[in-house]
Amino acid sequence: MAESVYKMIELVGTSEKSWEDAVNNIVLKAAENLRDIRIAEVLTLDVKIDNNKIALYRAKVKLSFKFEK
């Protein structure tokens, strides 16, 4: 069995629709530059509020991807 090494980074994504959409935005954007994304671990969820209404959903996510030389 071949050994692998994975790197982890933290990213914050936003959406006007939902937390799920905010996480999806992170994965889609990260996939433009990273290969072999393996895990997306949601660390925190919060919202920005304007005029007593939710204006923006935010998700902080830890992503792991295969580390290559």
From TrEMBL:
Cited Pfam families: Dodecin
Lineage top rank: taxon: Archaea
UniProt name for this protein: Dodecin family protein
Organism: Promethearchaeum syntrophicum
